[in-house]
Amino acid sequence: MRRNLTPLYTHYVEIYTNSLVITGAYDLTIYRRVSDAVNGEQRRYLTLRDATIVPLGHHPTTQRLPQLLCDRSEAVLVATLAEAPPPPNYPLEEQRREVVPLTAMFFTTAFVIRGTCYVRPGLTLTEALERLMEDFLPLRSVQIFPIAGGMPILRDFAALARDKIVALYQIAALPTSAPPAAAEPEEPVPAPQG
Fold it and tell me: Which of 2, 8, 50, 145 is the residue whose CA sits 20 to 30 A from 110?
């Protein structure tokens, strides 16, 4: 039982490694979005409460644990199942910056991942990844395809470990705005000869 009055912000996450799927409650005493929390984590292990651990592709062998430590360096993907709502005074302005969506396929040794990342206008996928200083790349509208087989897994948000990416390609090019078509002058219609 918690006796102090410090608010606790709980995100429910799935952590995919090359051989395991780990699910649990990720508690934070200071509100941060999942991608910010995982990228800003200074400790090697992520602590999950009320966790389950399943060998990849073997769902009948689920083990439940009151607490589990997951090695952050082994995480391929951290997906959000439910994110804690931000406190009323959370500064949303700092999250709003000019970005454009870019959809790509990412290959790791265990998964193929389709997702949309957001990059600064004018950057290619390669340039955006090379400029990214964080360990995990935030993705939206994520589809996870286990290489060993199985049904695709759909998640609204996931953070992909950059050092686990083996290959990647952009699916759709950035939209370019075409100049408006000039109206063609109307040709005079000849008067009927009569």
Answer: 50
